[in-house]
Amino acid sequence: MSSLSNPKNLNIPKNYSFIQERARSMPRPLRVAIAGADSENILAGAMAAQEEGFVEPILIGNYKKIKTTMETLGISEKNCDLQPISGDTNVVQYAIEMIRSGNADCLMRGNTQTRDFLLPVLNKANHLIQEDRLLTHVVTYNVPGEERLMAISDVTLLVKPSIDNRKQVIRNIVEELELFGIKRPKIALLSLIEKPAFHMRDTVEAQTIVMDHQEEPIADCDLVGPITYDLIMSKEAARLKHYDCPFCGEFDGIVVPSLLAGNIIVKVLETHTQTTSCGILVGSKIPIAITGRSERPEQAYLSLAACCSQYLRMKKKPKK
């Protein structure tokens, strides 16, 4: 077993201990269908989760490519459920069919383009999205030196979210943070400036969302916006700018005004600060892990731990 796929050799911040313990409490391993399992870092993270006993990876894709990746990682084929498919078979749809037939529990993005992965997920014929819910990608992360975990959304699906979109993103972030044991989180509506300005539509919309929340809570959270990134992250910035908000430097979640803003924040943090993150889709009927192919194995490992916690919650919810 390669050191990359050994959980003892992964650098997991202690902030993630809650989600790891939840994953270890699984009554049986989560059967994870990895669509395009020839992604080295994603496969390494999945195998580390298998070593911990909370995941059973199902490797779907091109046989030769998967075998080459396994050899690189030093993984024995006898410990894997390998599902080779032909080149004309849609690997994501194949994984979804395994889940729908009861042969897998969770979907995970492997070596597939984001668009190719999401199209079958969003296809109404597959019935993967909860009724009256908006599917969003929530990334939970820990910046080195910061004691708290934070969540940010949406970073994959919503190009320019409307007011109603962002209200649903708020609900999804709160739901995600509950998986990590964080209740009544403090949520920030990110903007370029901290005061509404008519020529910057998202600032006016942020103010509207906060006012609506005060009248009728969107979710069980404290909500502030519009607010800039420095004020979200720093009490000192709030002091210097005379910004009166008790949550500065203590926010748990960030709702971004655009896909570009959210994606850039996550990629900059992961590239330049070695931020450890995990990503799942919220609003789906099944757990779905989605991490970048260039990210470290820790991301895949933790995304699967989050999916385990999500799976346990889904099983507890009464069916309508």
What structural keywords apply?
single chain; about 325 residues; alpha/beta; Rossmann fold; Isopropylmalate Dehydrogenase; 2 domains; 6-stranded mixed beta sheet; 5-stranded parallel beta sheet; about 40% helix
CATH-assigned fold name of the largest domain? Rossmann fold
Mean pLDDT score, rounded?
A: 93
User: What is the CATH class designation of the largest domain?
Assistant: Alpha Beta
CATH architecture of the largest domain: 3-Layer(aba) Sandwich
Structural class label: alpha/beta
* Overall form: globular
Q: Helix and strand succession?
A: HEHEHEHEHEEHEHEHHEHEEH
The multimeric state of the shown protein is single chain
For the largest beta-sheet, the strand count, sense and barrel status come to:
6 strands, mixed
In brief:
The protein has helices at residues 17-24, 40-52, 63-73, 91-100, 114-122, 163-179, 201-215, 229-233, 235-240, 259-272, 297-316, and strands spanning 30-35, 55-61, 81-84, 106-109, 136-142, 150-153, 186-190, 222-227, 253-255, 276-282, 288-289. The protein has 320 residues and is an alpha/beta fold.
Structure report:
There is one protein chain. The chain has 320 residues and is α/β, with parallel strands linked by helices. The protein folds into 2 domains: 1-129 and 284-320, Rossmann fold (3-Layer(aba) Sandwich), CATH 3.40.50; 139-278, Isopropylmalate Dehydrogenase (3-Layer(aba) Sandwich). The protein contains 11 helices and 11 strands. A 6-stranded mixed sheet has the order 8-7-9-6-5-10, with helices on both faces. Strands 3-2-1-4-11 form a 5-stranded parallel sheet, with helices on both faces. Strand 1 (30-35), helix 2 (40-52) and strand 2 (55-61) form a beta-alpha-beta unit. Helix 1 (17-24) crosses helix 11 (297-316) and helix 2 (40-52) packs across helix 11. It is globular and about 60 Å long. The model has no long low-confidence stretch (mean pLDDT 93).
